[in-house]
Design goal:
Helix content: 10-25%
CATH superfamily of the largest domain: TolB, C-terminal domain
Oligomer: single chain
CATH topology of the largest domain: Neuraminidase
Largest sheet: 7 strands, antiparallel
Shape: globular
Strand order of the largest sheet: 37-36-35-34-33-56-55
Number of strands: 57
Length: 874
Amino acid sequence: MGEVYRARDTILKRDVALKVLPAALAHDPERMARFQREAELLASLNHPSIAIIHGLVDSEGQRALVMELVPGETLGDRMRHGVLPPEEALIVARQIAEALEAAHEKGVVHRDLKPGNVMITPSGLVKVLDFGLASMVQGASSTPPDPANSPTLTMNMTQAGVILGTAAYMSPEQAAGTMVDKRADIWSYGVVLWEMLSGRRLFGGDTIAHTLADVLRAPIDFDKTAAPAPIKNLLRRCLDRDPKTRLRDIGEARVAVAKYLADPQSETEVAGPHGSPPKRRLAWAISAVLAAALGTIGFIHFREQPPQQPDPVRFQIQPGLTLGAAGPFSISPDGRKMVLVAAGPDGTTRLWIRSLDSLELRSLPGTETAPNVPPPFWSPDSRWIAYDASGKLKKVAVTGGPPQTLSAVSAPVVGGSWNRDDTILFSVNLGGIMQIPASGGTPVPLTVLDASRKEAGHVFPTFLPDGRHFIYLSISTLAENSGVYVGSMDTKASEQPRRKVVGTEYGPAYVPPVNSVSGVGHLLFRREKSLMAQPFDDRTQELSGEAVPVAEGLNSFLANGFFSASNNGVLVHRAGGGQNSQLTWFDQQGGVVGAVGEPGYYESLALSPDNKQTVFSRLDFQTISQDLWLLDFSRGATIRFTFGAGLASNPVWSPDGSRIAFAATRDGQSSFYQKLASGAKDQEVLLNVPAAAGFPFPTSWSRDGRFLAYTAVDAKTGSDVWVLPLENRKPFPLLHTQFSESNGQFSPDMRWVAYGSNESGREEVYVRAFSPDNPESASTGKWIVSKGGGMTPKWRAYGKELTYVRPDGKLMSVAIAGGAAFQAANPRELIQLTTGGGPVDVAADGRVLQAIPVEKNSQVAFTVVLNWQVSLKK
């Protein structure tokens, strides 16, 4: 085996596990070859329940595997505390099966699954260790080895006639020295599951020889376990000594355990006596109407295609959560789950998983940075979700676990796709299509915008079945150029042909053929509020036949068409989204004072220094444009402030209230402008921002009028805080670290800058020193002022108070003491903001202005359509 050390990665500042060969084996060519093979096998696996390998390093002739350091205890240690409760044992068993399934799909057989190779983290996440382990030959010892933890006996690991594995857990074919395949892991899985449920060892001979004899011949008493009948049936199938009649696929074990956990009263069964898989119910049926408070939920079952094609079935699912204006969602490729971006009972927005065949609705902790606009997208095996995480592209396992950063992004992610070769395509706002390995790396451009065609973005890429071609939506200010186009990964970004498939303003989807005789799939796209389907040959990338409506009354948010389709005939669409909000005043106790202005979708707002006006950006869903508007509270009049500046947003008032700075885009170019608040003159360009900086936006104007703070995005570091001196117009970074910093706010006395940062692992509010006489100088003073997370800081009361918003929607206040040194009191709650509400600002007198929803679109049900393609032929 190897020697494993806890080590410190001094470059990336993290603890790791360092695995090296013992000195006696470090120069053995066979052992070194196996060590190399283990590294390659681990690198090929990517699953939350499999320990990650970071690299293979060579130092002064000694090789080491650098691996994820997994906290917690082994399953063996846990079992020594006593028998596991059946539910806990099955939750562990399900995750072990998921790990083995991921390995088997990559052609990797563990060969040494045992409790000592399974870690359980403090949060309950299972990690399977030592995949592809090349174990060492047993040496002489004066103490008889423990058969439950015996070293592997091996000479050449891939040859027949070799014993490979730990005696108490190896399969009969391993014990007999015959060739093994993935069914050996299924046997070991059965042994581990039997022991978890019984609290005792299954094969426990006094010596390794006795243990191997028991593995080959000893009867197995399944009644000694506390397993329910369906799980006993699973154990019998796993512990069949004949590999030909043993359970053939660990995925069947995963399904059986998961079904029992979801419904312990069910009669879950696994494959029959000859290993034939159960019939998969591809046509789903609705089973019952559940409690009226929860709405109608369809229980969905997969089965093989029957002789007669099933009729389409429609039913609705209530969200059960508070969805924002965009309400992004996406169905998994296998049609079993949806991922939603929504606010839970605590008011915090994160990713949620909704199963279509049960009442299960669970959050994915750690995804609180998921924005409320672009929909997440799935891995092809439905086990991972990729999403925009405020300046980073991340992925998270459906089963949970810490999200993994794939890359920094220069602007919000607007759609993505993941192929079976583990390549990810994604698009960013006002940019082209990028590609990146699913393991992470530096994004490579696949398409570039064509200014001559007035292209403003390439968004919502979708892989076609060959994994090399893709479709995407090109957005252009020239209506005739907007539509679905085809691209290729084998063509340079600058040479991608502009071959238009169909005209639309919304992101498309491709669905492979289901219940189809012709073998041709369909392109889904929107026309106005109708979802259309048209035959599309993925080989020629051409449409045929007529476009037929499959759903009506869909709403939209920007280019998001509010529909999602799986690969096996499940379609989900929703009429909600794009809900209007109303600007509303609240007093210091959270009571409603009154509404002002007109309903609309408010993207950002800022109160004037004298609190007599507000400037806000409002989106027009019909024209997909966004302008700034001024609202005078005394007169109740709303006046348009910007004209022809593209998407204008993030207004900031000058200290004297005479001017307004804002960000806007035009023809793919981002710029900062300033304009007199009176509107007397045209807007003036303050800064043209490079496209690589994404969509930067101003956040604060210094009290002396000399500096404008803004947030920009770096491809390597994520978002950073920059400062634009208005005298020389030469910007410089104020906060440019490996962490994401944003929303810099100058204090009234200009001695401090408050900002948000994820340095602690979650978004918190910090304050650091600022010197207006030497603004580019580095500062060592830094203080964290929020507790429990915080964002969007704002100074009040001439710098004696700092407000911020917690992830649960509570508006917090921190008292700031005067003096030479920075001192902050403990945060206190001001009011609870409206869940699912829009932008917010705090007036000098403590009143709060917030855009709150006025339409109940957040609870509009999802419509699920099964076998929708059948209706196209009727």
